[in-house]
């Protein structure tokens, strides 16, 4: 059968070429993506992208995660730069397992803290601490942010590792008003069906 | 939204015998309580394997499923239809990205998945191995194949694996216009000129059997899936999904004055179940194993995209950073 796919016809793709095995993995780096669903709302984890560097990751993240839902801000961070605790379940609070670490071996800097408050949901930004190491930041987060509800997992990220969208660039999140064809309401057709049925009856 | 009729391997009993019974019990209790499993949690090897297989098949289906519809973008009737179809196809490819990400949290790299797709090792929804001869074929996919996939995937969204459920929730929300768009296209043809009606009817005649295949082999022929149901990997059986689809969409097809090429199709008033002619399952097997009308060309398009994009990936590689498995 001759192909109906214009790509096959135009690009002169042969469909029986022998597959050459690839030599090495060329997998790009993984970045975690967080968005603000409302103005001034906390950043929530939404998923990942693969990219060569953090700026490219931001562009991919914007394409993937801000197209359809409201978005007021976005940030990305390399997955490998996130320090994660273990996971707990039932009513066990992960902070109960966090040891007292009053100092670290690095200079004091800002760390961002994300909590998993319900298993199956997303990690949500809860606040930041000034600390001298990841463990020091985690302990300070325990002191500051551990209320009575259990936290099942905590992510600790250096603020300097995160690329945030610019407050002055908010216009990039606006949806163009001429994209109505992306809404279900643009496809009402009950009138047509009704008219068709009436015509059938009258015949 | 193109995922459907997943094929599972027959679970081997010894695979479970090697698991730590205490951890297995904790794992099963967690699912029983309705809690989601997260990537860092202990899970049986079989659970991991079947989930990777299922999510990966779903992701491949989104990518390959975009091909038969994508071929019609340039030939869609009118600017409006072109815009809608382009938006839909773009969505589907984006959804493949979300699904690959979810599968990656289980430890299989995206590149390995793409490699397995291109080499034919991994499967995707069989229905996309058939050609779209006319615009009406494209409308059939947009409405009814999407509808079938929604039946399958809304069931899966209640499953036990956190990252997959989150991806599906997002996908379902993004897709709200797809089904309406497809229905709109079919209504337009079905209530149009005699020539348009004929074109739509011919598409239904061509696609009905592949669509019945889409939900997978009947339960009595399917592999033993009790464990997968208990672990909430599989949320509804193939026959349950097929019944639900028939119940929702056969009346909608009939009300447009279109017919379905199965003389035995009717709803049994007593059992409340649809009766139908079993589609040819030998044909299903033959096509899924590579011998369908479009298998080769679908993979060829992916292979060429991969080959021609290689220099971009190589140029972008940052050797100072290493790939790691995503967290959630």
From TrEMBL, chain A:
This is Phenylacetic acid degradation b. It comes from the Bacteria. It comes from Splendidivirga corallicola.
Automatic annotation (TrEMBL), chain B:
SUPFAM superfamilies: Ferritin-like. It is an enzyme of class 1 (oxidoreductase). Its EC number is 1.14.13.149. The keyword Oxidoreductase applies. One of its GO terms (molecular function) is phenylacetyl-CoA 1,2-epoxidase activity. It comes from the Bacteria. The keyword Transmembrane helix does not apply. Transmembrane segments: none annotated. NCBIfam families: PA_CoA_Oxy1 (TIGR02156). This is 1,2-phenylacetyl-CoA epoxidase subunit A. It comes from Splendidivirga corallicola. The gene is paaA.
């Amino acid at each position: 059968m001759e192909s109906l796919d214009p790509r096959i016809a135009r690009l002169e793709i042969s469909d029986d070429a022998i597959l050459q095995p690839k030599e090495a993995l060329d997998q790009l780096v993984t970045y975690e993506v967080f968005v603000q669903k409302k103005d001034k709302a906390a950043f929530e984890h939404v998923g990942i992208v693969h990219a060569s560097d953090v700026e490219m990751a931001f562009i991919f993240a914007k394409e993937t995660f801000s197209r359809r839902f409201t978005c007021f801000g976005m940030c990305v961070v390399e997955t490998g730069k996130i320090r994660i605790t273990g996971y707990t379940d039932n009513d066990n609070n992960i902070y109960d397992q966090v040891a007292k670490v009053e100092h670290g071996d690095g200079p004091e800097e800002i760390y961002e803290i994300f909590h998993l408050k319900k298993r199956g949901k997303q990690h949500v930004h809860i606040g930041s601490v000034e600390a001298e190491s990841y463990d020091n930041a985690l302990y300070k987060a325990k002191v500051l942010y551990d209320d009575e509800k259990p936290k099942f997992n905590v992510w600790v990220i250096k603020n300097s590792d995160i690329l945030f969208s610019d407050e002055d660039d908010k216009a990039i999140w606006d949806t163009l008003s001429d994209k109505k064809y992306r809404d279900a309401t643009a496809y009402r057709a009950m009138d047509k069906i009704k008219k068709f049925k009436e015509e059938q009856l009258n015949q | 939204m193109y995922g459907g009729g997943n094929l599972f391997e027959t679970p081997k009993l010894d695979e479970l015998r090697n698991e730590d019974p205490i951890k297995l019990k904790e794992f099963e209790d967690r699912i029983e309580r309705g809690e989601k499993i997260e990537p860092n949690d202990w899970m049986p090897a079989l659970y991991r394997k079947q989930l990777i297989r299922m999510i990966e098949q779903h992701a491949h289906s989104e990518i390959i499923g975009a091909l038969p519809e994508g071929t019609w973008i340039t030939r869609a009737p009118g600017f409006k239809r072109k815009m809608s179809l382009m938006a839909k196809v773009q969505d589907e490819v984006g959804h493949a990205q979300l699904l690959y990400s979810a599968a990656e949290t289980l430890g299989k790299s995206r590149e390995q998945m793409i490699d397995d797709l291109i080499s034919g090792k991994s499967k995707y929804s069989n229905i996309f191995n058939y050609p779209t001869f006319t615009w009406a074929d494209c409308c059939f996919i947009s409405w009814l194949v999407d509808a079938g996939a929604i039946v399958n995937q809304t069931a899966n969204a209640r499953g036990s694996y956190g990252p997959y459920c989150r991806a599906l929730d997002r996908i379902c929300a993004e897709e709200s216009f797809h089904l309406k768009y497809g229905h709109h296209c079919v209504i337009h043809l079905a209530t149009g000129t005699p020539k348009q009606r004929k074109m739509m009817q011919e598409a239904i005649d061509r696609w009905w059997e592949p669509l019945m295949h889409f939900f997978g082999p009947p339960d009595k022929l399917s592999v033993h899936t009790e464990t997968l149901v208990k672990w909430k990997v599989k949320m509804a059986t193939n026959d349950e999904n097929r019944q639900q689809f028939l119940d929702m969409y056969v009346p909608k097809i009939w009300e447009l004055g279109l017919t379905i090429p199965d003389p035995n199709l009717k709803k049994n008033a007593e059992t409340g179940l649809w009766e139908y002619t079993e589609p040819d399952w030998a044909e299903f097997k033959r096509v899924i194993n590579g011998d369908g009308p479009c298998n080769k060309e679908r993979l060829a398009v992916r292979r060429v995209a991969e080959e021609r994009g290689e220099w971009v990936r190589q140029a972008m590689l940052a050797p100072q950073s290493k790939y790691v498995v995503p967290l959630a």
